[in-house]
Design brief:
With 337 residues, the protein is an alpha/beta fold. It is built from 12 helices and 13 strands. The protein binds nicotinamide-adenine-dinucleotide and 2'deoxy-thymidine-5'-diphospho-alpha-D-glucose.
Length: 337
C-alpha cells in the first residue's frame, strides 16, 4: 500500500508518519510538505533514511507539483491530509495564508487525488469547526458548524469541500474532527509547549484573559491511532469525532505545568485575551468508540509528564526554533517555495 501524507513534517503529521512506519510494515509513505515555518526536518530525522519513506517539498496549492507526485509515484492508494496553517493567533494577524492552504490547497488536493483514482481520502479536520460551547454539553458529529476564527473558518471550508467531493462525485472521503493535541514535537507557539519552554527558560507563562477557557486534551499518539483506524475502517462520507474526554481550563493546565516544573505559581501571568476567544470545546467521541473500537489510552498526568520530560531533554530542538536559527538554516539549505 502506498499513501500520501500531507503535512508530515509538522507536529501530528510527524507522529503519524513514524507510527505508520513502525506499525504498518506493508505501507510506503510519500510525505508532501512545503516545509513552512511549522515544518521541521528534525521531527523525522530518525526515519529520514527509511526506504519506505520519502519527502517531497511541494505545496498543496501547487497543482502541477501534486499531479507529478500522483503520476510519478503512483498508484497511490490513500491520502491522509494534515497539511494546514494551524495556529489561531496567526490567523488573527492575517487569514490569507489560511484560506490559501486550508481552503484552496485542500480543493486542489481533492481534485488531484480524484483524477488520479485514489481510493480513499482522509480529511483531518478539527473540533474548532463547531465553534464554542457554554458550560455544558459536547460536540457531536451533527452539531452545526459555526467557526469563529479565520483559522477555524478556513478549516470548516476544507471540511465542507471534502464533504462536497463525496456528495457530488462519490469520492471516497472520510473526515475526522479532533480536539486539542499535545505531546513531543509540538511547535512552541501552542499553549503547552510554549508554557513548558518558557518555564524551562525562567520566563513567564502568558495566560489569556481569565484563564477559564476550556480545551479537551488528547495525547498525540492516541490521535494518530484514531486516524489510522478511520482511514481503514471508517465509512465513506462519514465524520468521526476524536477526543480525550479530558477537559481542563487553561489555568488548570498552567498550574499542573508549574507544579511539574517546580516553578512558583507567580510564573503564571495574566495577559490580554485572544480576540474572539472560544470559551469551551468538548468532544463526544462515542461514535468512533462504538463503531471502530478506538479509545484514548494515555492518561493526562502521564502524557503531560512525558511531554515535559521530552522538552527538558530536547532543548536544542526548541531553542533553535525559538531563537530563529532553524529558520536561517532551512532558508539557506532549501530556500523558499
Ligand atoms: P503543524 O502546524 O504543526 O504542521 C503543519 C504542517 O503542514 C507543517 O509541516 C507545514 O510545513 C505543512 N504545511 C503548511 N502549509 C502547507 C502547504 N501549503 N503545503 C504543504 N504543506 C504545508 O500542524 P499540526 O498541529 O500538526 O496539525 C496538523 C493537522 O491537524 C492540521 O490540519 C490541523 O488543522 C489538524 N488538527 C490539529 C490539532 C492540534 O491540536 N494541533 C487538533 C485537531 C486537528
Ligand atoms: O481544538 C483543536 C485545535 O487546537 C486545533 O485545530 C488547532 O490547530 C490547535 O492550534 C489548537 O487550537 P487552540 O487555539 O485551542 O490552541 P492554542 O494552543 O493556541 O491555545 C489553547 C488555549 O490556550 C486557548 O484557549 C488559548 C490559550 N492560550 C494560548 C496561548 C498560545 C493562552 O492562554 N496563552 C497562550 O500563550
Amino acid at each position: 500500500m502506498r499513501i500520501v501524507v500531507t503535512g508530515g513534517l509538522g507536529f501530528i503529521g510527524s507522529h503519524l508518519v513514524r507510527w505508520i512506519l513502525q506499525h504498518q510494515p506493508q505501507v510506503d509513505i510519500i510525505n508532501v510538505d512545503a516545509l513552512t515555518y511549522a515544518g521541521n526536518l528534525e521531527n523525522l530525522a530518525d526515519i529520514a533514511d527509511n526506504p519506505r519513506y520519502q519527502w517531497q517539498r511541494i505545496s498543496i496549492t501547487d497543482r502541477p507539483g501534486l499531479e507529478a507526485v500522483f503520476r510519478d509515484q503512483g498508484p497511490i492508494d490513500a491520502v491522509m491530509h494534515l497539511a494546514a496553517e494551524s495556529h489561531v493567533d496567526r490567523s488573527i494577524q492575517s487569514g490569507v495564508p489560511f484560506v490559501e492552504t486550508n481552503v484552496l490547497g485542500t480543493q486542489i488536493l481533492l481534485e488531484v487525488a480524484r483524477n488520479a483514482g485514489v481510493s480513499r481520502f482522509l480529511q483531518v479536520s478539527t473540533d474548532e469547526v463547531y465553534g464554542s460551547l457554554g458550560g455544558t454539553g459536547s460536540f457531536v458529529e451533527h452539531t452545526p458548524l459555526s467557526p469563529n476564527s479565520p483559522y477555524s473558518a478556513s478549516k470548516a471550508g476544507s471540511d465542507l469541500l471534502a464533504r462536497a467531493a463525496f456528495e457530488t462525485y462519490g469520492q471516497d472521503v472520510v473526515i475526522t474532527r479532533c480536539s486539542n493535541n499535545y505531546g513531543p514535537y509540538q511547535f512552541p507557539e501552542k499553549l503547552i509547549p510554549l508554557f513548558i519552554t518558557n518555564g524551562l527558560d525562567g520566563k513567564s507563562l502568558p495566560l489569556y484573559g481569565d484563564g477559564l477557557n476550556v480545551r479537551d486534551w488528547l495525547y498525540v499518539e492516541d490521535h494518530v491511532r484514531a486516524l489510522w483506524m478511520v482511514l481503514n475502517q471508517g465509512k465513506a462520507g462519514e465524520v468521526y469525532n476524536i477526543g480525550g474526554n479530558n477537559e481542563r481550563s487553561n489555568r488548570e493546565v498552567a498550574q499542573t505545568l508549574v507544579s511539574l516544573m517546580h516553578l512558583p505559581e507567580t510564573a503564571i501571568v495574566p495577559v490580554p485575551d485572544r480576540l474572539g476567544h472560544d470559551r469551551r470545546y468538548a468532544i463526544d467521541s462515542s461514535k468512533i468508540q462504538e463503531t471502530l473500537g478506538w479509545r484514548p489510552e494515555t492518561p493526562w498526568e502521564q502524557g503531560l509528564a512525558l511531554t515535559v520530560q521530552w522538552y527538558r531533554s530536547r532543548r536544542a530542538w526548541w531553542e533553535s526554533i525559538k531563537n530563529g536559527t532553524y529558520k536561517d538554516y532551512y532558508r539557506d539549505q532549501y530556500g523558499t517555495l
